Amino acid sequence: MSAPPFAMTAGTVRRDGRAVLDAVDLEVAPGDVLAVMGPNGAGKSTLVKALLGLVPLAGGRTEIYGVPPGRFRDWRRVGYVPQRLPMGGGVPSTVREVVASGRVARQSRWRPASAADRAAVDRALEAAGLTALARESAHLLSGGQQQRVLIARALAGEPDVFVLDEPTAGVDAGNQAALAATLRDLAGTGRTVVLVAHELGPMEPVVTRTVELEHGRLVRDTSSPADMRESA
Amino acid sequence: MGMLEYDFMRVALVMAVLIGLTAPAVGTFIVQRRLSLLGDGVGHIALTGIGLGLLTGTSPVLGALVVAVLGAVAIEVLRARSRSGADVALALLFYGGLAGGVLLTDAEGGGGTSLQSYLFGSISSVTVDDLYVVAALAAVVLGVVALFGRELFLLCQDEEVARASGLPVRFLSALVAVTAAVTVVIAMRAIGLLLVSALMVVPVAAAQQLTRGFRATMLLAMAAGVLSAVAGLAGSFEYDLPPGPSIVLLALTLFVAAVLGGTLVRRARARAAAGRRIPAVRSGVDAEAEVLGG
After folding, report:
1. ABC transporter domain spans which residues (chain A) (predicted)?
2. Is A86 helix (H, G, I), strand (E, B) or coil?
């Protein structure tokens, strides 16, 4: 049997001596569409970053497809969508440039972008409804459009598992519906999705499993949001 | 043009083109990483290398190269290690480098003139051998940009996404810093250590007023860099001015022109977009807010 996309055992993250993630056990199975929920400051973003090895664990262990993040090499299988597109020093990037950078894990340093790379970028732009905006400066788009750019970047890499950190924060209803449609397509092709959300909104029917964090602890793990409402 | 009759000017012009191409190419990444003053710091540190080179009777350029690269790596380590203490640590490094350089060149006895020429540039003293060294270093810098450009783009865009894409983030960060250090040494003879980083930053700041993409910004910045370097050098020859400051002031003039040009272009685009999208809105100010913020 192949290893699951993510498996964390007693994962603990400390910041300034305080446990922001406290002995979390979490295994994400292939094909799961998992929503990580909870109030602000509960440790949702920290959890997904720890799953990816972006935040070091103070205790416990975590694995990506059976390998600790530090030794994991198959990063093309993972697509990470951060909360926002940083401005940096203000050098502009076109939407297409940002999306194309999602291919980097699949590209060789020694070869220019291939026809397959360009086709994947075209498909990602199309799927996110960004084709018409491809030549625009990504930083001048609205928050919802920028979120779509970040998702398209992950799509361009054609990963097996998507990790989205608050993809709906500050996003209008239209863009939320578009996001839900994209997630449904991903789930339909058997991809694994882990997403951080304050509330699910239009994504609710797509989500197959929900975990809830409070003060860094996993307090609830339910197989669908409907179950969670019953237990609440 | 009369200046091409002089050997040293032909050498100097080739060097100006190389500097104009390399400094903004590296600078685009530096600016996006919010390290605009990195070149400045490396320049201060490199001065100690020049002092060491002069004192030991070896090549000042080689000394500057070695110390600048070590300094750049030290800066990168400090930056990555601590978010809060790095600021002061960097300042210590910069002042140490500057003071060390002044002390060492003084001890060497060469005195003010040689120090002056490294601080503010002295392109007329450049030899053909210097040019070969600079050309080789420029090839290395442009090679790094071409080979690692895609990875550096993502690194400068978002370091966490770069890590989650499996990129060697620490190596790439050091690569940016070291490439900047090499660029400082390339430009040092012509522009001087105190003004070197201007050519890494100012053409990029000018280009980004007018462009929508990263690659376009880099190419336009390189064009602005070459224009500033060549025209600044020619102007300094014609009017007997110091070349470094002439080049930098010309680049700043291009920046001001780009800011004005960019404002006009954005206004025109906003008006055009307002005409297309929301014909009911007449006010140009509202229309601009719609496009830029909406």
Report:
1. 1-231
2. coil
Structurally, how many domains does chain A consist of?
A: 1
| Nearest CB to A142; choose among B166, B215, B294 | B294
| Structure-token pair, residue B201 | 């930053």
State the maximum Cα–Cα separation within chain B, in Å, rounded to a whole number.
Answer: 75
Instruction: Report CB contact under 8 Å: A136, B208.
Output: no
Q: What is the CATH number of the domain that holds A192?
A: 3.40.50.300
Which of these, B31, B42, B18, lies nearest to B94 by C-alpha position?
Answer: B42
For residue A1, being part of any structural domain is answered with: no
Domains and CATH numbers, chain B: 2-293 (1.10.3470.10)
Model-wide pTM > 0.80? yes
List chain A residues with CB under 8 Å of B164: 52, 54, 75, 78, 80, 163
Digit-coded pLDDT (tens) for B95-110: 899 899 888 888 877 6
Quote the CA–CA distance of A166 and A186 in Å, as a whole number.
17
Q: What is the pLDDT of residue B283?
A: 40
Tokens 């001596």 correspond to what residue?
A17
B34/A136 CB distance under 8 A: no
Instruction: Inspect the interface and report whether the beta carbons of A97 and B147 lie closer than 8 Å.
Output: no
